[in-house]
Amino acid sequence: MQQGNDHFFDWDHVQQFGTLAIVLSENDQAEWTIALGGEDFSFDDNTPEPPTGEIILYKAKLKDAEAIALEYKGEAQSLQ
């Protein structure tokens, strides 16, 4: 579902690849890949510290996929 510049994918359109990436699909076609930035990503859910390293967003295409580094902005806001 798309609203303005936001695009929402329900869990039926999310496929996990190993422990480092997920693919978001629409109409049986990959649209986006979200991946952890390799060895530099670190997260410990036993501490209040935010994660370190990159989470990267890629538009799903065969050539010239531009990596978009996502930034941590603090606690997630409730959608309700």
From TrEMBL:
Species assigned in the record: Gracilibacillus boraciitolerans JCM 21714
Protein name listed in UniProt: Uncharacterized protein
